[in-house]
Design brief:
Layout (H helix, E strand, L loop, with lengths): L1 H31 L4 H25 L6 H27 L1
Helix pairs in contact: 2-3
Length: about 100
């Protein structure tokens, strides 16, 4: 009976360590197939949004603080900032 227990334990150990090796291979494969173009895409979008925010802030500086145009520009800046935050959240999860 002890021989069968030994074989059962050996099979269990093999099964446990066999899965870990496969997981390691899978994660290694994922790292190798990582698409670095997505990082470039992310940074390009971030830079474009930041440039647009800077442009709107420059326009805003030329406006009267109490004008409707100032408020409109601030709304646009807030929307772009929200979009930038969503982009950061999306790519933080993805990258």
């Amino acid at each position: 009976m002890s021989f069968w227990n030994f074989l059962g334990e050996l099979a269990l150990i093999e099964w446990l360590f066999g899965h870990k090796k496969q997981d390691g291979v899978a994660s290694s494969t994922l790292r190798q197939s990582y698409d670095y173009g997505r990082e470039d895409e992310y940074f390009d979008k971030v830079q474009a949004l930041e440039r647009r925010i800077d442009e709107l802030e420059q326009r805003q500086e030329q406006c009267d603080v109490y004008s409707d145009r100032y408020d409109e520009l601030q709304d646009q800046i807030d929307d772009l900032q929200d979009e930038l935050d969503e982009l950061d959240d999306y790519f933080d999860d993805d990258l």
